[in-house]
Amino acid sequence: ECVLEVFGDIETCLKTEYNLKEKIREILDQLEQHSRRISTVLQTIHQPVDINTTKSEVCTQVKVVFTDVRICYSNLSSLVEKQDYFKFCNLWQGVTTRFSFYLSLVCFLECGKLANRQDIADQLGLNIDKKHGFHLELDDYLCGLLLLASELARFAVNCVTAGDFQTPLAISKFVHELESGFRLLNLKNDFLRKKYDGLKYESKKIEQVVYDIKIRGLNSKLEA
């Protein structure tokens, strides 16, 4: 082959990859829009009129949006070949982490429990096994849990402001167990290690909220 033929083939490959990235970005734009919608809805838990009613309504609204999110991930999965997954996955890693966080928060609001990786993947329409190509990566799931701890620390403070002294106690127990779980992990990812340092700070912040509730005798109202 002559030089021009070689570079002609390269140009064709580059154009194909560029067109694929453009199609991926179109879907990512939709995912970002859905992420903003969900974030806006979830922020209402921090300004509740009625804590329980607000939580129920928020979870219902968020789940409706995730119907559209699953469609977007299905389209992405169809677009990206299995062997090309790791070539492009950094493009949607950030938004996937946020969706994992949102779903973990909804799970806590609904039943006070930790959503496992399979639960999150199912609600996104993804797999957790790499052999399927498109999947929910473990780092994205773990990072979502660390974002959850930060959000719950803020929620604990706002619950007290709203006169809800029960939820901060549940949050404290949950985040303490979450922190204990992370202690078992030997985190290799630098970003995750830094976020884990933040978890320890958030845990102490929540402990202070619980301490204030108890020292002021506000927890006695729960027992009365």
Automatic annotation (TrEMBL):
Q: Where in the cell is it found?
A: Cytoplasm; Nucleus
Keyword annotations from UniProtKB, A to Z:
Cytoplasm, DNA-binding, Endonuclease, Hydrolase, Magnesium, Metal-binding, Nuclease, Nucleus, RNA-binding
Quaternary assembly: Ring-shaped heterooctamer of six TSN and two TSNAX subunits, DNA/RNA binding occurs inside the ring.
Query: In which domain of life is the source organism classified?
Result: Eukaryota
Q: What's this protein's function?
A: DNA-binding protein that specifically recognizes consensus sequences at the breakpoint junctions in chromosomal translocations, mostly involving immunoglobulin (Ig)/T-cell receptor gene segments. Seems to recognize single-stranded DNA ends generated by staggered breaks occurring at recombination hot spots.
Per the UniProt record, the source organism is Ciona savignyi
Question: Could you tell me which Gene3D superfamilies the record lists for this protein?
Answer: Translin, domain 1, Translin, domain 2
Cross-referenced InterPro entries, in alphabetical order? Translin, Translin_C, Translin_fam, Translin_N, Translin_sf
Does this UniProt record's set of keywords contain Nuclease? yes
Q: What is its main location?
A: cytoplasm
The answer on whether this UniProt entry bears the keyword Protein biosynthesis reads: no
| Matching Pfam families | Translin
User: Which PANTHER family does this one have?
Assistant: TRANSLIN AND TRANSLIN ASSOCIATED PROTEIN X
Q: Please give the GO cellular component terms listed in this UniProt entry.
A: cytoplasm; nucleus
Q: Which family does it belong to?
A: Belongs to the translin family.
Q: Name one GO biological process term.
A: RNA metabolic process
Give the GO molecular function terms. Answer: endonuclease activity; hydrolase activity; metal ion binding; RNA binding; sequence-specific DNA binding; single-stranded DNA binding
Any idea what this protein is called? Translin
Residue positions binding Mg(2+): 151
